[in-house]
Amino acid sequence: MAYKDLQHYIDALESRQEMKRISAQVDPVLEITEIADRMVKTGGPALLFENVSGSPFPVAINLFGTLDRVCFALGVASPDEIAERISAMIPATSSSFSSLTDKVKLLWQLKDLKNVQPKIVRSGSSQEIVQTEPKLLDVPVLKCWPQDAGRFITLPLVVTRNPETGQQNIGMYRIQVVDDRRALMHWHVHHDGASHHRLCQKKGTDMEVAVVLGCDPATIYAATAPLPPGVDEILFSSFLRNSPVEMLRAKTVDLMVPAHAEFVLEGTVSATETQLEGPFGDHTGFYSDADQYPVFNLTAITRKKNPVYPATIVGRPPMEDFYLGKLTERIFLPLIQLQLPEIVDIHFPCEGVFHNCVLVSVKKQYPGQARKVAASIWGMGQMMFTKTIVVVDDDVDVQNCSETAWKVFSSIDPERDIFFTKGPLDVLDHASPIPVFGSKVGIDATRKSGAEGHPRTWPDEIKMDNKTKERVTARWQDYGFAK
User: Fold this and answer.
1) Which residue among 68, 302, 463, 467 is the one 20 to 30 A from 163 at the CA level?
2) What total of structural domains would you count in the chain?
3) Residue 99 has pLDDT above 70, yes or no
């Protein structure tokens, strides 16, 4: 099902009794976070706060707070349905492309995607109201945690353009509100938005930016997806929706924006001016440090007549971003298998906050294959940030962390099977002694052969034979147990 916009999705959640309206007055400073955090941690419903102190606009939160809700948002019963669609698109000729990036780009050039190309329109509900004297403080932006430096926009779709190629990009970067006309853009050095900004800085020009707040759920998700540079997030969203996303030109910047967004904040990011941004309670469960980030100067706000402000909270997992990350894990598995066909499954456990740990099962065929897989994963886009990679055999269910831990703890010789390297780390990693660079660890927990320095025979696991299991199952009630 393709939702037209955020409010269409909210109505659908309400019809499923997964949206709770709260009419009592609430404070966007800390109070909404505490309420929403309790809902996320207990698998509770999405929330619509209708009476927010200091703002005429309602706040929607916990829109993606369970895996089932994320699937509903994209109109599927399981993320694997999307993965299967991607697998079916992959042509045999993809094997001739050397890199994963080339293969992914190939997919988005296929004729199968012509019926979901984004559609350019002249008008849309996102421009029902145009404010050229904008007041950003009227928007009910949240302060989530006590030590946060201020109020942060946490679910923005930030539209930028590469000044050399003209290609637009949409990313999700937190934004700290300073006053009615200024905010701070927190994009990490590795992100496309930051790359576009550096190109503008070289030319000595400010960069036009549109911050989109509140779209259909597929477009929100697409902004978080780890797509290679040059792959259009709006085309990816259209593919997920099975329906074109309608786009129109912004009012005061030369950018295309979703036609049915709740709010669009238009402006420029300064080439020279920065301010201290943060600290901020982050998805690692710790506060990220304050640092200098560029100033976003607002030129206009366009919006619906009656918009809803979307928000999320980040903090100690699980939070909404975990479920969005789980979607990424399943959707992008076929693309990872394009490059590494020996991979059977992959799992980013909640406790690893996506970039700290990945569990991988492989169909092992030769000595040292686990190390080769780990090295390849560290070379794949944003997976370069992964600090710990654990590789197990294909008969281990990596979705079952208990089973995986048992196999790892019982099957490694630490001196032989643990290996280290160094490389880029996520900006939010607080444990590394040097920012954005540090050590990584790989653990080869696969069965070892003599060629890998294991002269002994690897033991068989203890398992009951099927005949006995079937006999006991058939007589289960005879033993006095319930069926």
Assistant:
1) 302
2) 2
3) no
Specify whether 246 is located in the same domain as 368. no
Say which DSSP state 366 is in: S
Per DSSP, the residues of 172-208 read: ---EEE-SSSEEEE---TTSHHHHHHHHHHHHT--EE
Output the pLDDT for position 302. Answer: 98
Q: Given the DSSP bridges, would you call strands 343-347 and 388-393 parallel, antiparallel or unpaired?
A: unpaired
| Residues 40-95 pLDDT 10s | 999 999 999 999 999 999 999 999 999 999 999 999 999 999 988 887 776 654 55
Contacts of 73 (CB under 8 A, 6+ apart): 3, 9, 63, 64, 217, 218, 221
CB 200 within 8 A of CB 271: yes
For residue 229, what is the domain's CATH number? 2.30.110.10
Six-digit token pair at 121? 């329109």
Alpha helices, DSSP H, located in 267-344: 320-339
Claim to verify: residue 49 and residue 167 sit in the same structural domain: yes
> What domain range includes position 443?
340-452
Query: From CA 353, how far away is CA 360, in angstroms rounded?
Result: 16
What pTM value is reported for the model?
0.88
DSSP 143: B
Beta bridge partners of 419: 442
Catalytic residue among 148, 192, 282, 426: 282
> Residue 402: how many CB atoms within 10 A of its CB?
8
d(C-alpha 261, C-alpha 258), whole Å: 6
* DSSP one-letter string for 151-170: -EE-SEEEEEE-TTT--EEE
pLDDT digits (tens, 9 = 90+) for 104-119: 555 555 545 667 889 9
| pLDDT-derived band at 144, boundaries 50, 70, 90 | very high
Note if 282 is an active site residue: yes
| pLDDT category of residue 262 using cuts at 50, 70 and 90 | very high
Phi/psi for 258 (5° steps) reads: -60, 135
